[in-house]
């Protein structure tokens, strides 16, 4: 037979409060607060007006100035060139046969994942949950430094392109 004990309501509340206080609260860890965004790329591209113009236009051919006509309200206007893409000096053809000065599937989310993988590798981890709280804070700082380095080098690249190709 089980032994029955009696405790007061106040004692029960204290026991529950103590158990809850001792339970470790898990903090959600992610790089969202420092992640590279379309806006970061857009800021760099906006510093280079000619590059921005080339990024925003879809072209009919790999070379030449013929611009693909944008049909307002049609299926093409939703996927026109973007001011938040990484500039490519060569025009790249998409699956519809339209040429852009950017790789249409090189999204900032891919750049984010590559930066995140690099940071995690630096800390000897493959996933964020492998990091201690201190390592995670250090990883956030490192990610931010890598992101700023990436954006700076991209800006330097566009500046050098302007010097090499005056038409840019």
Task: Please identify the structural class as seen in this structure.
Answer: mainly alpha
Which spans have pLDDT < 50 for at least 5 consecutive residues?
A: none
Adjacency order of strands in the biggest sheet: 1-2
Average of the residue pLDDT scores:
83
Distance between the termini: 88 Å
- What general outline do the C-alpha atoms trace? elongated
What order do the helices and strands follow? HHHEEHH
Share in β-strands:
5-15%
- The quaternary structure here is single chain
Number of strands: 2
The number of helices is 5
| Helix content class | 40-55%
Gyration radius (Cα, Å) is: 26 Å
**Overall structural domain count:** 1
Biggest sheet record: 2 strands, antiparallel
Structural overview:
The protein has 168 residues and is mostly helical. It has one domain (38-164). It is built from five helices and two strands. Strands 1-2 form a two-stranded antiparallel sheet. A hairpin with a 5-residue loop joins strand 1 (87-93) and strand 2 (99-102). Helix 2 runs parallel beside helix 5 and helix 4 (108-122) packs across helix 5 (133-164). The longest helix is centred in the C-terminal third of the chain and has 32 residues, at 133-164. The chain is elongated and about 90 Å long. 15% of the residues are buried. The model has no long low-confidence stretch (mean pLDDT 83).
């Amino acid at each position: 037979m089980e032994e029955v004990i009696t405790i007061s309501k106040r004692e029960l509340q204290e026991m529950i409060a103590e158990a809850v206080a001792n339970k470790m609260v898990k903090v959600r860890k992610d790089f969202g607060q420092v992640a590279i965004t379309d806006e970061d790329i857009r800021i760099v591209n906006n510093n280079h007006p000619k590059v921005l113009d080339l990024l925003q236009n879809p072209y009919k051919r790999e070379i030449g100035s013929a611009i693909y006509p944008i049909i307002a309200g049609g299926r093409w206007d939703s996927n026109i060139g973007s001011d938040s893409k990484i500039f490519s000096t060569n025009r790249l053809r998409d699956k519809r046969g339209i040429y852009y000065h950017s790789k249409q599937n090189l999204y900032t989310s891919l750049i984010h994942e590559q930066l995140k993988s690099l940071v995690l590798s630096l800390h000897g981890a493959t996933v964020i949950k492998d990091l201690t709280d201190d390592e995670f804070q250090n990883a956030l700082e490192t990610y931010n430094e890598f992101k700023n380095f990436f954006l700076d080098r991209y800006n330097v690249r566009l500046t050098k392109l302007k010097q090499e190709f005056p038409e840019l």
